[in-house]
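[recover] target loaded
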């Protein structure tokens, strides 16, 4: 099954983008090739760009506190295991403290590294990190893979508190949704959302054997899914048959 996720608001959109970047970083850093480490470094710069939003840190901390309060409201419920509840609340507290103790925005300390910032300023230029533009960076790429990996882990470590917080918040959000079997009639599906409930994330799973691509749009009032097919002319065309998929709305 292929999983597609669609955010209902800009805050969750930012969280998903950061999660995507942190996953990529986690894949690239353990590798050995200089090219992998180049893209690991540019990924760190991308995280810094996304994290440069002034209210991101406060949004994450507010969401951590909100989730903690929601979980604490379940105390005394016989259907809830107190030990599990304590563990999750403890993880939220740890994320909150780590993020609160980190000064400034994501990667703020890295901006004081002139060498890294010289690479960052050139990374957005096509071919801008060639050896004749940045000889010191080229020399770093020729060092042992273990040395490069240690540097990357040190630099990425400044983003660890944000990464763990985003992971926790999205995990709890995803766990709040219950998947349902849906049938799209004539390649389309629409659902009116109940009033008084604020959904934040849509999750859609579809069998890749169907060869269909969902185009999703949603707001606080309605969810709309249009199934498309990538045809031989290299264009997307609307599917006209019926197709089944799983849908979960998370709040």
């Amino acid at each position: 099954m292929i999983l597609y996720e669609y955010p209902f608001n800009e805050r969750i959109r930012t969280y998903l983008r950061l999660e995507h970047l942190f996953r990529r970083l986690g894949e690239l850093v353990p590798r050995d090739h200089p090219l992998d480490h180049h893209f690991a470094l540019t990924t760190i710069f991308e995280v810094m760009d996304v994290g440069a939003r002034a209210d991101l840190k406060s949004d994450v901390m507010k969401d951590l506190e909100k989730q903690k309060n929601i979980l604490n409201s379940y105390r005394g419920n016989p259907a809830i295991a107190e030990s599990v509840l304590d563990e999750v609340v403890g993880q939220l507290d740890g994320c909150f403290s780590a993020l609160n103790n980190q000064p400034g925005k994501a990667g703020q300390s890295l901006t004081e590294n002139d060498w890294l910032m010289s690479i960052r300023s050139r990374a957005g230029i096509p071919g801008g990190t060639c050896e004749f533009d940045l000889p010191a960076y080229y020399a770093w790429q020729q060092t042992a893979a273990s040395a490069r990996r240690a540097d990357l882990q040190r630099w990425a470590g400044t983003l660890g508190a944000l990464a763990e917080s985003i992971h926790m918040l999205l995990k709890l959000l995803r766990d709040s949704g219950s998947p349902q079997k849906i049938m799209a009639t004539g390649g389309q599906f629409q659902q009116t959302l109940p009033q008084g409930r604020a959904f934040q994330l849509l999750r859609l799973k579809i069998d890749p054997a169907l060869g269909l691509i969902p185009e999703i749009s949603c707001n606080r009032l309605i969810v709309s899914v249009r199934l498309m097919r990538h045809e031989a002319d290299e264009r997307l065309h609307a599917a006209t048959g019926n197709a089944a998929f799983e849908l979960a709305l998370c709040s």
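[recover] notes: Helices lie at 10-28, 34-50, 56-72, 82-100, 114-123, 135-141, 145-157, 160-175.
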